[in-house]
Amino acid sequence: MTIAIDAAFDGGNIRLLAIAEERDRTRVDLEIVRDHQSDFFQWFYFRAAGLGGKPATFRILNAGESAYPMGWPGYRTRASTDLDTWRTIDTRYEGGVLEFDWTGDTSLAWFAYFAPYTMEQHARLVARTAQAPGVEHRVLGHSLDGQAIDYFRIGAGAKQVWLYARQHPGESMAEWWMDGALAWLTGEAAAPLLAAATVHVVPNMNPDGTRRGHLRTNAAGVNLNREWHAPTVERSPEVLAVLRRMDETGVDVALDVHGDEAIAANFIAGFEGIPSFTDAHGERFLAFGRRLAAHTPDFQTELGYARSAPGKANLSMSTNQLAERFGAVSITLEMPFKDHDPNPDPIEAWSPARSQRLAVSCLEVVAEMIADGAL
């Protein structure tokens, strides 16, 4: 039985190059497809049918040409046979080729860069959240492909807290984080935070890239996190719609949720290089990191990005723009495609469940800091 490779589904990305039947296994050569009108690529998600219990080796031949090849060493592919449970499997990277074996006894298996969070899953998240008491749902605008930019308003407190994710659609752990955040925000534990703050949530900033199987860009090949200084209807209507709503509400605290290819840890990045930066402003950002590290073993402060030099912040990036525009304590949260090495999981590595739990930890720290006047 010949193996069939498919990726023409919600969030799928792969191209079949060749299938070779060898004596003891089948070799499948593949390549990741570039984002539309862009050179970015790294996200993959595909189905293999007809496996029939025979060992197979999958080789992604253009992995070394991807956007972040430094992310492959130490990385482990996610695999599933039911689309609910995703486990890591041994993965090799050598000579620009990413390679992994499958020896399962099922005829069907799915493989992905990280456990997917598709637009179908997004629709279900929106549906169940919109039904929760005290939740206001709006469509802030539409993407270039005509998809809704979904938004929730929860709570009635004075502090304006913004949560937004999936500017880079291949970073699916970001919407798993949102899934956990919205579950917590619509439960009883969130009551103290919602009395002190109004929480604004955009669970997916880039629905077009998500559905198309992009790594980093929207339907026009635009990196949304380089559009916040001057978004336009033609290039970045997603950012334009969200920023207009932020201008209406103001922003005191913002969390922009992402995934990082290379660093095997959770970390945050800030706004040190903005023109209006003060030590007091920066200390509130640093305090959040310290408190989060003390709150959960799934966070640390030693690893992360280099700080921007004074006055050198890129104001096209949302964290910098919101800190400068509103004086917000603006935070980029990065989660790994690999694992959180200070607290690793040898079976699932960094996972959907851990992303959901980290969201709760983040919101508990936000609530604590607002309560004691630190935010």
Automatic annotation (TrEMBL):
<dbReference type="InterPro" id="IPR040626">
    <property type="entry name" value="Pepdidase_M14_N"/>
</dbReference>
<dbReference type="Pfam" id="PF00246">
    <property type="entry name" value="Peptidase_M14"/>
</dbReference>
<feature type="active site" description="Proton donor/acceptor">
    <location>
        <position position="334"/>
    </location>
</feature>
<dbReference type="Pfam" id="PF18027">
    <property type="entry name" value="Pepdidase_M14_N"/>
</dbReference>
<dbReference type="InterPro" id="IPR000834">
    <property type="entry name" value="Peptidase_M14"/>
</dbReference>
<keyword id="KW-0645">Protease</keyword>
<keyword id="KW-0378">Hydrolase</keyword>
<keyword id="KW-0121">Carboxypeptidase</keyword>
<protein>
    <submittedName>
        <fullName>Carboxypeptidase family protein</fullName>
    </submittedName>
</protein>
<dbReference type="GO" id="GO:0004180">
    <property type="term" value="F:carboxypeptidase activity"/>
</dbReference>
<feature type="domain" description="Peptidase M14">
    <location>
        <begin position="115"/>
        <end position="375"/>
    </location>
</feature>
<dbReference type="InterPro" id="IPR050821">
    <property type="entry name" value="Cytosolic_carboxypeptidase"/>
</dbReference>
<comment type="similarity">
    <text>Belongs to the peptidase M14 family.</text>
</comment>
